[in-house]
Amino acid sequence: MAGIEFDRQIFTPAAEAQRSQAPKAMGVILLVLALGLAGLVGYKVFTQVSQNNAIASANAQVEQLQQQLAESQKRVEELEKHRRPVKAEIAVPVPAPQPVAVAKNPAPAKPVYRIAAGSALPPQPKPTITAAPTPPAQSAANANTAAIQTELTANHEAWQATTDRLADVVGVVGQQQNELSETREAVNQLLSQTRRQALSFELLRGNNRMPVGPVTLQLKSVDAKSQRYSVCVYFEDRCIELKDRVLNEVVVFVVSKNGAPLELVATKVLRDQIVGYLEVPTDKQQR
Q: Concatenated DSSP letters for 55-120?
């Protein structure tokens, strides 16, 4: 055992190294703790300041809302004062106490019962119901309706007057048509009683006269565009003017009082002449 020897220098540096590292580790831990504490304190301070700012802004908003609410309440009260009707105080007449008659007889008075109305107010008259004023829109509609009705009445009267006039005109035309029919029948009878012969002619416009049967014809004017003409019929130096006649029109005329009627028909209307024929009775024909 005495022969074993230990080298003590091997263990000495390790212990000293552990002793030198221990203060360094403690310093690091303390530094970390200090930083953590400083961060915690800073966070609490920041949180407190944020809460104070939020509370201050909330208080300001609450005060502003309270002011607006107070102003709205004042306005509502003013409107209610203006709209609230003033109630008139009704004076209620108080009936005067009536004197109680005292009986002269010493006999005990009988109890007297009186029936009084429950309300002391005087009888009020029934409210009269007044007709509501007609709104302006309804009055305007009534005025428009009245104007339309007046216009319809006037139109009906004008239509009735026009109808009456048309009836009168139809009556006159019917009468004239009857007269024309009678005249035509008489002429047809006269024509049917005599034999007739057609004498053709060609008249030139100018002063030349052309004898045709018992008469002499002279062309006065010609309108080829409208197919109209005018002819002068001479008999015993008298002129019977057949004015403004049309193509194929049967022109009936009488040259003497008791003479038979003659018929003139133009079958062509040219620029300066007309072509046609004249029907004359065979017993009165003159050539």
A: HHHHHHHHHHHHHHHHHHHHHHHHHHHHHSPPPPPPP-PPPPPPPPPPPSSSSPPPP------S--
